[in-house]
């Protein structure tokens, strides 16, 4: 299985999420793992903007990582992780899921599902309208 040629998958791309242009014009799906908490807010804004432009209707944008939810307190491990992130770069940090969803909605993406994952992470699925 590991040696098979996967013609339906492109290799990973080096993309500046916040950049004005991406090197692709279309994607069937976008997967971003541990991106938005270890990057400035401008990366989240860019990710949503570009996903809204290049995904077809119904296509998913899948995010994985830690989030704040509905004003609930973070788990102790995520409090420590958030503090560590902000010490490394004040523009980094665990994001509010509601704020991320609001930006996504403004770019034509609708929050479709949220799955609890191990280690206080979430898988969040948006779909293009």
UniProtKB/TrEMBL annotation:
Ranges in a coiled coil: none
A Pfam family it matches: DUF938
Record's protein name: SAM-dependent methyltransferase
Organism of derivation: Aureimonas glaciei
